[in-house]
Amino acid sequence: xxxxxxxxxxxxxxxxxxxxxxxxxxxxxxxxxxxxxxxxxxxxxxxxxxxxxxxxxxxxxxxxxxxxxxxxxxxxxxxxxxxxxxxxxxxxxxxxxxxxxxxxxxxxxxxxxxxxxxxxxxxxxxxxxxxxxxxxxxxxxxxxxxxxxxxxxxxxxxxxxxxxxxxxxxxxxxxxxxxxxxxxxxxxxxxxxxxxxxxxxxxxxxxxxxxxxxxxxxxxxxxxxxxxxxxxxxxxxxxxxxxxxxxxxxxxxxxxxxxxxxxxxxxxxxxxxxxxxxxxxxxxxxxxxxxxxxxxxxxxxxxxxxxxxxxxxxxxxxxxxxxxxxxxxxxxxxxxxxxxxxxxxxxxxxxxxxxxxxxxxxxxxxxxxxxxxxxxxxxxxxxxxxxxxxxxxxxxxxxxxxxxxxxxxxxxxxxx
Length: 416
Ligand code: LLP
Known about the structure:
The protein is of the alpha/beta class. Helix content is about 30%, strand content about 25%. Ligand LLP binds near residues 100 and 273. Keywords: Amino-acid biosynthesis, Decarboxylase, Lyase, Lysine biosynthesis, Pyridoxal phosphate.
């Protein structure tokens, strides 16, 4: 791992986290380039071309992160025109982009067609018709994969489970053959593959393989209907360890997927991993403002809040919180809470920590869905981000200023 203690001080690779906080201020996101590379290689070494890995940009879309992954040969899974623009700005290849999302606009479709993306992951019959129209207007063919909902229970938090038929995502398995036939008829649609994504933070291979079997059966049916299917994209969703969970063995999963797909033959496999690439490669540094001794319990009031890291408030997600400087003092039972005016504004509840005003804490495994989900609630500028490479730290996003936050706002004169 790339975050370790040396002589009681937390380091990101060879950089002291305390020094990073002193230089760049807090709250501060710190990423380890080496850890991102290691995570990527775990996938890429087991699964070389023609199989394709499309990093899910939503997990962490900083240009430096995207640039690094582009250099490693990544494709990208995007969900908006904004994410496409980021991929291009970071030097990513458009012909390795897959476009997911349930409500793509005409403008987003046109932009993606103009860039020549690899394919659209189409989520409904209505979207397919609209994409055909947009492609016709631009006199091009739109490459398409049908996102099918395999109706499996991913056994994860209900807010991040997407593969059940009660979710809004994907085309129902029972409708997939008809919609594929329709795709064949549409003059500006080029059907290439099928895809699914059953949820996120999934810790066992079973639901993925269950979904894969259903998708492979569908592909066999479609081929029987005379419809050529060239790729199967199994989406993202591979979980990481936040609290001593045992995540699934990535290479075993990839190899098993490959084995099952080979039985059918003629398929390129794709994945859209997000969290498993960047999650454990980032931490959030925060400074304790006050220690408040309460009647029933104590609070550590820190300078990072739910606007900086929303996962605990939104999903009751657990993130380990550790001191940047270890101390010999005996730990207290505390809630680690932010400055935002909401009861739900916590980073961790009932933790054993010894820290007092001025001390630094590190919120671990914050590299995925940390900064990207942050907001300006309570007019709080978003944090700075730093990428560590060995003993060098690079500022990859400046801290926002307060005046950035009212850019574009207008005062309206009040009638007297
Ligand atoms: N592909 C699609 C179509 C997706 O919707 C997602 C994530 C991914 C790939 C990447 O999944 P991953 O490998 O990162 O699990 N904000 C939540 C997670 C939401 C995931 C949304 N979709 C969280 O903080 O846990």
